[in-house]
Write a structure and sequence with these properties.
Largest sheet: 5 strands, antiparallel
Number of strands: 10
Order of helices and strands: HEEEHHEEEHHEEHHHHEEHH
Structural class: alpha+beta
Oligomer: single chain
């Protein structure tokens, strides 16, 4: 999974940070053919765990043949020497804006996220994750979040950095620490959190709730306030007014967020089937 696609001089050249989160810093560059790339330099706190790199490389190799327009291709894992060796994931760069930036601006500028537009993105996301779960039942993304979702200029949703699930599981953080430090929501369970298809569905549910709220989830929102927020959240109509969220949509959110383990979705395939049923019963156009 280690491929030398960048000229060493380019790799060592200073590049401005394009985006930063709990996983690391992303910089933009080009390959020798002048094709745009994004380089995620992982935080040393993550890569210092000995099994992290091995799990990451194994997952990159496992997903080498997985290709779809709603996932940004990962070129490989490289060690970049900028004084001290750092581990980086190199991916094709997707034109567009990260969903977290859209939600942050919407909250700051008091711009409502209309429910049909939100549901359009939610369905695209559920469909993308369902395809991954269907084609590779033993694989999960593991880090689905607004920080790792790109909205292109033509409103197409693209998921990035889908090779991290197995490596993040090696950190052995608590559920609270995964959320506080990495913004990764995980379903409740006895013992240490598990990175599996239910984790992906939980993460999809958290993005869906953020889109309906029209803002990023805060530190204190997850997991303590999920039931409260889902119970009272409304929908912004095309006219800009707030209307009640249909019970079927509220129920879907609860099942996606694993609020009731007995009724929760076990995979995105189940979540997609139910979402299509819900959309068919409502007047929303999801467009």
């Amino acid at each position: 999974a280690e491929t030398k696609i960048m000229d060493p001089a380019i790799a060592r050249a200073p590049m401005p940070i394009a985006f930063e989160d709990g996983l690391g810093e992303r910089r933009h560059t080009v390959d020798p053919r002048n094709e745009p790339l994004e380089v995620l330099t992982l935080r040393s706190e993550l890569t210092s765990v000995p099994s992290f790199e091995l799990a990451l490389r194994e997952r990159v190799s496992r997903l080498a043949s997985f290709r779809h327009a709603c996932y940004a291709p990962v070129r490989g894992v490289e060690r970049i020497d900028r004084g001290t060796p750092t581990l980086a994931i190199v991916s094709d760069r997707v034109p567009g804006v990260r969903l977290t930036e859209i939600l942050t601006v919407a909250e700051k500028e008091l711009l409502p996220v209309e429910i049909d537009a939100g549901l359009c993105l939610i369905r695209q996301l559920v469909q993308a994750v369902a395809m991954l779960h269907e084609q590779l039942p033993d694989v999960c993304h593991g880090a689905i979040a607004p920080e790792r979702v790109i909205i292109t200029p033509n409103a197409r949703l693209v998921v990035v950095e889908h090779v991290l699930g197995a490596a993040l599981g090696q950190l052995l953080y608590s559920r609270e620490r995964y959320w506080k430090e990495l913004r990764i929501p995980l379903p409740p369970r006895a013992g240490l959190p598990r990175f599996d298809r239910r984790a992906d569905v939980t993460q999809v549910g958290a993005i869906a709730l953020a889109l309906i709220l029209g803002r990023p989830l805060n530190d204190d929102d997850y997991p303590a306030r999920m039931e409260e927020i889902v119970g009272r959240v409304g929908a912004v109509s095309a006219s800009g007014g707030l209307e009640p969220l249909p019970a079927s949509v509220r129920s879907w959110l609860s099942r996606a967020l694993q609020l009731d383990p007995r009724a929760s979705f076990a995979s995105a395939v189940e979540a997609l089937a139910e979402l299509d049923n819900v959309l068919g019963e409502t007047d929303y156009t999801a467009a």
